[in-house]
Structures are given as C-alpha cells and as structure tokens.
Amino acid sequence: MIQIEFSEADIAALEYERYHHPHPHVQRKMEVLYLKSQGLSHQEIRRLCRIRNKATLVSYLREYEAGGIAALKQLHSKGQVSELNAYAPSLKRSPTQIKAFLKRIGLRYRKVGYIPGKTATPEKMAQQEQFQSAELEPRLTEAKAGERAVFLWMLPTLFTGFTWAFSGASRVSL
Questions:
Q1: 165 forms bridges with which residues in the sheet?
Q2: Which residue has the higher pLDDT, 160 or 80?
Q3: 114 vs 100, which has greater pLDDT?
Q4: CB 92 within 8 A of CB 149
C-alpha cells in the first residue's frame, strides 16, 4: 500500500476541490486523494469512487506524490482533432447571418405546440399517423436507398415553442 503524508492545508484543498473544480475528471482525482487522506483502504476507495482498474488509483496517488495538488489539476487528454477545425473561420457565423441563410433556403421561424398540449386527441394522433405514413416513411425509404439525403436540423432558440422549419410550398427537396 502506498503511504502518503497529508498536511492539513492539502486535506482542506482536496476537500474543497473535489466539489468545486470545474472539470469532473479532476474532481474524481481529488475525491480519491481526499479519501486516502481519511485513511480508507485502496479497495474501499476504488469501491466508493467506482474505479475498476487498480492501476488508475495508483496513478492518481503517484501523480500527487510527484507534484501535489497542482499535478492532479493537469489534464493530459488531448482528444481527437476534428477535420472541421481547418474550416472554423468560414463556419463561424453571427446569428444574423444564420437567420438570413435559413430564410434563403426556405425555412421560416414557426411557432410550435407545447408539450403537454392537445397532442393526445384522436384527431392529432390520426394527423401524425397520416404524416408519418404519407410523408416521413417514403422519404426515409428513399434516403436508405441513396435517392435522397435526410438532415435533422436542430437549432437552439432563446424562446421555447418556436423553431425553424420548412413550410408548405417552400420545402426544399434534397
């Protein structure tokens, strides 16, 4: 078992950081070291923190031994680089530019029904079934056959109950 001596200042810092650090991975490391400072066994720490691999726990302890709390705060994960990063300057648009683009391709800002609403009436259910069988399923079948592209366009809005959608004659066939 790895023996570590903790100062009162470090214990206080670990106790604070395990709840207040902005990154959850660092919070987890702080929790592990805080539990270690409280005298819990490695097996008990792994159980409480749901750490499956013993090597993970040991790596957190070694990190602390090597550089203290500052070392625990370092994130070594780089993640994957997106191919879109090269196009970032051309992809960044202001809300005004996005709005103009959406209008140009035929979308309109539409008010939608709220949930829960009168969606469970027999008329609404029949209308939804009719749309699904007559409009949605044929388009999805075409998409599966490679004859059509189907895009799901979700845009966050500040006002609930409104969305951008194609309407009637202005639908664009893709």
A1: 108
A2: 80
A3: 100
A4: no
